[in-house]
From TrEMBL:
Signal peptide: none annotated. The keyword Phosphoprotein does not apply. Keywords: DNA-binding, Transcription, Transcription regulation. SUPFAM superfamilies: Homeodomain-like (SSF46689), Tetracyclin repressor-like, C-terminal domain (SSF48498). Residues 43-62 bind DNA. Gene3D superfamilies: Homeodomain-like, Tetracycline Repressor, domain 2. Residues 20-80 form the HTH tetR-type domain. It comes from the Bacteria. This is TetR/AcrR family transcriptional regulator. PANTHER family: HTH-TYPE TRANSCRIPTIONAL REGULATOR RUTR (PTHR30055), TRANSCRIPTIONAL REGULATORY PROTEIN (PTHR30055:SF151). It comes from Streptomyces vulcanius.
Length: 237
């Protein structure tokens, strides 16, 4: 069961500025406010000001701020998955899903802080879960494994996506300072007390990069190895 406001309460209504108020417009405005000012900007009062309407009008579309948070999270999923059409290769399809989800959160890095760990129970999320579990079922996994392994997959993707988005949301000087640490602080450590770091000193600059692709590839390789059915591109015999 969803918590969405009944359709008759979500009719388009004009604001004081003449703009037609709608669920879509409210969510878009919420995303803009979060992008400009951070999650703390998500209040009924600030939304009402930005939309040019009485804050109480928002309750015709959402039960409260948390209901709006779920709608924002679902909108990010919807944007990320728009146009996605899985092919015959379930591994490639899951990889594309992962890349799309991460891109969606990077597009709204300040919203990712609260959006990535919520269960929206809305249309876009339901469609994504249906697709992901369907791909694992097509690989030959039974229902219990398909459900649990999809959770493993999406938690891995969302964890990396949220972390990458959080880093992207940092002020530029903080991001650069963290990057420089790998090529400065870590390069000057004592070889006696830090033999492992000394052994890989020339490679530590790669620690500044996201491990998203490697993590997803490792997980997908493990899933493919455990799959009861063959991947479509594998030859018979």
């Amino acid at each position: 069961m969803t918590t969405r406001v009944p359709q008759e309460r979500r009719r388009r209504r004009p604001t004081r500025s003449g703009v037609l108020l709608s669920e879509e417009l409210i969510v878009e405005t919420a995303l803009r406010l979060i992008g400009e000012h951070g999650p703390e900007a998500l209040s009924v009062r600030r939304l009402g000001t930005a939309l040019g309407c009485d804050p109480s009008a928002l309750y015709r579309y959402f039960h409260g701020t948390d209901d709006l948070v779920l709608a924002v999270a679902d909108r990010i999923i919807g944007d990320a998955m728009a146009g996605f059409a899985p092919g015959d290769d379930w591994v490639a399809a899951l990889r594309e899903m992962a890349v799309r989800v991460r891109a969606g959160y990077l597009a709204h890095p300040r919203a990712a802080a609260f959006a990535s760990y919520r269960v929206t129970r809305r249309e876009n999320e339901i469609r994504a879960v249906e697709t992901g579990i369907g791909l694992l079922l097509s690989a030959g996994f039974g229902p219990a494994d398909a459900a649990r392994l999809y959770l493993t997959f999406i938690d891995t993707v969302l964890g990396h996506a949220a972390m990458d988005a959080a880093f992207q949301a940092l002020p530029p000087q903080q991001r650069e300072s963290d990057h420089q640490a790998w090529s400065e602080v870590y390069q000057g450590l004592d070889p006696v007390s830090h033999p492992a770091l000394t052994a890989v000193r020339q490679e530590l600059h790669t620690m500044r990069d996201s491990s998203f692709e490697e993590a997803v590839d490792l997980l997908l390789e493990a899933l493919a190895a455990r799959a009861p059915g063959r991947r479509p591109q594998e030859p018979l015999g």
